[in-house]
Specification:
The protein is of the alpha+beta class and 444 residues long. The chain folds into 3 domains: 57 residues, no CATH class; 89 residues, Roll (Pdz3 Domain); 248 residues, Alpha-Beta Complex (2-enoyl-CoA Hydratase, Chain A, domain 1), CATH 3.90.226.10. Helix content is 27%, strand content 25%. The protein has 10 helices and 22 strands. A 7-stranded mixed β-sheet has the order 10-11-12-15-16-19-21, with helices on both faces. Strands 1, 13, 14, 17 and 18 form a 5-stranded antiparallel β-sheet that branches. Strands 6-5-7-8 form a 4-stranded antiparallel β-sheet. Strand 10 and strand 11 form a beta hairpin. Helix 8 packs parallel to helix 9. The longest helix is centred in the first third of the chain and has 18 residues. It is globular and about 90 Å long. The termini are far apart. The N terminus is likely disordered.
């Protein structure tokens, strides 16, 4: 995400001006002069509709909900990534970006119409209290969770550090429910995981791009350096993206200062470049893992490292989201998430709908008993933006791994163990081979 100051100041001024036309001191919509030229004249139809609905609909309706619904409908006419964020959703997005919140430390979802613990986060209050994956949360502070929405559940579970909440849990194998009273604490969401593979290969997994991702990556790389690694794997698989400047800062860890990472162009065609911003960077031989879940900022990083021949990209075609969204806060605590530009790799490639094509294609095996989910990419979404430049036509080395030679990519594994991770194994083998060829003596 990024802010183009000049354009967005003008846009925000327009929004404020529009609000002045729409809202009176009493909170009702003003009548707009029917003779007004331009788009403001269309507001009359909206005002008439709102008035008719409020006065004649069979049940009482909240004006705010009607207006919010209209805004959502307006943005739904655009591309799949432009949306309206009500205050709760906007706060949640800010929490995700920041990477920390005050709560229990559990990932939750609705399963079989019941609020269910997907997984407790390690070393959090919920984890220490003994909450386990698969637990059904029947009550929160003695209030039933039947038909509760996920957002309402999140709001009830989160709260100030030091405050407590009681959750009533039903676990498989139990005869009756059990109450867990847990004291909330600040939960840190880690976006970087790292380890050493095969003694000398550093492995770094980026789950998303948050405000703290750059520092977490620096710390991970420093630790790997002390472990005397000689090469590394950067895993961007299933990373949905995040902050644009985060993608630039991550790429800056692997390229010299002043190298072009990405450039963007908005509707007016003005070009804005983003270059690497640090002089210290790692130079290990490097492989980047990507798949159909690698999107947005992940594709920026992979595309930059591929275009500069800094790394070999291995895996499957990425998601193909080549657009930039800007979040514009509104006066009532809500916000607009608006697509404002397209981005391009250093060589001028747009990955919109096409994605990044790996240098080496390796597909994961799908065993008969393995749970799968369908592959959905940007090109499958309704009203997606079109790619405005020609597709990349680079040479591709095809390798289907241990799976079926002509494996259908309409389904991929939902979860896979490291021992079955053919893409990771190929990356390790390639880096080992890389070292062998490097150490071969020169011919005579």
């Amino acid at each position: 995400m990024f802010r183009h100051k000049k354009a967005f100041v003008l846009f925000i001024i327009a929004v404020i001006a529009l609000s002045g036309f729409l809202i009176s001191k009493g909170g009702l919509l003003q009548k707009v002069d029917a003779e007004e030229n331009g788009h403001y004249s269309k507001i009359k139809t909206f005002a008439e509709t709102l008035s008719i609905v409020k006065q004649n609909y069979v049940e009482e309706v909240e004006e705010k909900e009607l207006v919010y619904g209209a805004i959502k409908g307006m943005l739904n006419q655009l591309d799949p990534h432009s949306s309206f964020l009500p205050p709760d959703a906007f706060k949640e997005m800010q929490i995700d970006t920041k990477g920390e919140f005050s709560g229990l430390g559990i990932q939750i979802g609705i399963k079989d119409k019941m609020l269910t613990v997907i997984a407790p986060i390690e070393d959090t209050p919920a984890f220490k209290a003994g909450v386990k994956a698969g637990d059904k949360i029947i009550k929160i502070d003695n209030e039933s969770t039947k038909d509760i929405t996920l957002q309402d559940a999140v709001n009830k579970l989160r709260g100030p550090k030091g405050s407590s909440v009681t959750i009533t849990i039903l676990r498989e194998g139990w005869d009756k429910t059990q109450d867990f009273t847990i004291v909330r604490d600040v939960i840190q969401l880690k976006s970087v995981k790292s380890k050493v593979i095969d003694e000398k290969i550093g492995y770094v997994k980026l789950t998303q791009f948050q405000q703290k991702t750059t520092q977490e990556l620096e710390d991970a790389l420093e630790k790997l350096r002390k472990d005397n690694i000689t090469s590394m794997i950067l895993d961007l698989r299933n990373n949905p993206g995040g902050l644009l400047n985060g993608a630039v800062e991550v790429t800056s860890q692997f390229l010299p200062e002043g190298k072009l990472v990405v450039y963007i162009k908005g509707r007016n065609g003005d070009k804005q470049e983003f270059q690497t911003i640090r002089s210290k960077y790692v130079e290990y031989p490097m492989i980047v893992l990507v798949n159909e879940g690698s999107a947005s900022a992940s594709e920026i990083v992979a595309g930059a490292l591929q275009d500069t021949t800094r790394a070999v990209v291995l895996g499957t075609q990425t998601f193909g989201k080549g657009s930039v969204q800007t979040v514009i806060p509104l006066s009532d605590g809500s916000a607009l998430r608006l697509t404002t530009a397209r981005y391009y790799t250093p060589k001028g490639r747009s990955i919109q709908t096409t994605g990044i094509t790996p240098d080496i294609i390796v597909k994961l095996s799908v065993k008969d008993e393995t749970k799968t989910h369908p592959v959905i990419r940007e090109k499958d979404l309704k009203q997606h933006l079109k790619n405005d430049v020609a597709k990349d036509t680079g040479t591709i080395i095809k390798d289907t791994g241990e799976g079926k030679p002509d494996q259908d990519e309409s389904e991929v594994s939902a979860d896979i163990s490291e021992s079955d991770d053919v893409q990771l194994q190929r990356a390790v083998d390639l880096l080992k081979t890389w070292k062998v060829f490097k150490e071969l003596p020169k011919a005579g």
